[in-house]
């Protein structure tokens, strides 16, 4: 064997460098999770909180396909609650501030849904012609 | 141990099978809730419209056009090449360029015609759309645009013989007088047009232009139902359609 020390040392250095992101992530301090503003009066979301947390984007996707393409309107949840499949009237009807609810969590997770380019966010209501 | 090449290959292929056959568990998403149409939804086989040009004044832009453009957040952009419109008025020569109705009454010919998407039976825009963003809804015959899918290629605009579609060359929001939060705007880079007010039909209301017209020019109903108001009107009065020779089968009829 030649240069046993160099080879083993090199391997150790290489592994340490390659694994850098993993232990850096462990050492690094995560941002604290922001506080979400929950609806004051309502107790229940469209589906269970766990389901919403994990799947609200898929739910919204299914809703828009149902409304635009299949001419449906009403969603009956697993608990039997009825909702109009509408981003503005339903979701924003309860979660009245996108900034203090949707966006806080999305900023934390670095997600930027394009929905508010067209759908009217509550902060845009009442705005009009500026030019 | 002796491992022949043959044995190695056998073992490797079995291992590959096992690895690739692992079920992709937890990936599939299943929505457990149920979806249904609105309880008051108006339904038809093919929605259609009659425009009575004897009654239409052809110049009161404030009623039908304003009502539609207000509720749908259609921007008013003064620059003609950037204009966005769902409903519009054009003189007879532009609406019926073939001018096959030579002796149409002068009174009608001199008016501006009320134009909109024809919601064709065989829409050419649908055939050319590469993403199926624009499609003919089986249930009620409305030619829809799924704005979520539109990539702004404008093939549909080239295909439409009626000029019913507009492209958003710029961000429309600054050009909307008062944004109606109930209906989304569009953004730069998508095509838009009349949707026969499907969002109103869904909740049991007739289209905004029909409701707004004080002269009773517009009649809206099911073309497949012989007892509907439009069919009854059409069975009594002479009417024409735009560019019928193209075979698109417009659902908008002009009573002359």
TrEMBL record, chain B:
The UniProt keywords, alphabetically, are: 4Fe-4S, Iron, Iron-sulfur, Metal-binding
Give yes or no: UniProt keyword Lipoprotein.
Answer: no
Recall the GO molecular function terms of this protein's record. 4 iron, 4 sulfur cluster binding; metal ion binding
Q: Where is the 4Fe-4S ferredoxin-type domain?
A: 141-170
InterPro entries named among the record's database cross-references:
4Fe4S_Fe-S-bd (IPR017896), 4Fe4S_Fe_S_CS (IPR017900), DsrO-like (IPR054822), ET_IronSulfur_Cluster-Binding (IPR050954), TAT_signal (IPR006311), TAT_signal_bac_arc (IPR019546)
A Pfam family hit: Fer4_11
This one is known as 4Fe-4S dicluster domain-containing protein
């Amino acid at each position: 064997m030649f240069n046993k020390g160099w080879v083993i040392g090199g391997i150790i250095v290489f592994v340490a460098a390659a694994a850098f992101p993993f232990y850096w992530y462990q050492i690094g301090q995560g941002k604290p999770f922001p506080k979400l503003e929950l609806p004051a009066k309502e107790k229940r979301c469209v589906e269970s909180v766990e389901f919403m947390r994990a799947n609200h984007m898929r739910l919204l996707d299914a809703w828009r396909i149902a409304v635009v393409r299949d001419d449906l309107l009403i969603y009956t949840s697993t608990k039997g609650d009825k909702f109009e499949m509408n981003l503005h009237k339903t979701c924003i009807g309860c979660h009245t501030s996108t900034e203090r609810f949707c966006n806080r969590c999305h900023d934390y997770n670095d997600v930027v849904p394009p929905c508010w380019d067209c759908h009217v966010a509550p902060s845009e209501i009442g705005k009009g012609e500026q030019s | 141990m002796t491992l022949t090449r043959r044995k190695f290959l056998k073992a490797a292929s079995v291992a590959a099978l096992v690895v690739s056959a692992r079920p992709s568990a937890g990936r599939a998403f299943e929505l457990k809730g149920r979806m249904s149409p609105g309880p008051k939804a108006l339904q038809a086989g093919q929605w259609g419209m009659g425009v009575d040009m004897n009654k239409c004044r052809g110049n009161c832009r404030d009623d039908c056009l304003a009502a539609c453009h207000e509720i749908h957040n259609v921007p008013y952009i003064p620059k003609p090449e950037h204009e966005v419109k769902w409903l519009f008025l054009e003189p007879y020569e532009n609406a019926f360029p073939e001018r096959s109705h030579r002796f149409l009454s002068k009174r009608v010919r001199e008016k501006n015609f009320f134009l909109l998407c024809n919601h064709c039976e065989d829409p050419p825009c649908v055939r050319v759309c590469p993403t199926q963003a624009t499609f003919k809804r089986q249930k009620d015959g409305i030619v829809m645009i799924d704005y979520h899918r539109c990539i702004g290629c404008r093939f549909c605009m080239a295909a439409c013989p009626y000029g019913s579609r507009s492209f958003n060359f710029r961000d429309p929001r600054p050009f909307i007088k008062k944004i109606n939060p109930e209906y989304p705007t569009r953004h730069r880079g998508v095509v838009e047009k009349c949707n026969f007010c499907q969002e109103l039909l869904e909740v049991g209301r007739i289209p905004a232009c029909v409701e707004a017209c004080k002269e009773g020019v517009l009649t809206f109903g099911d073309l497949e139902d012989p007892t509907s108001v439009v069919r009854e009107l059409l069975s009594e009065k002479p009417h024409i359609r735009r560019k019928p020779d193209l075979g698109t089968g417009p659902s908008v009829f002009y009573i002359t």
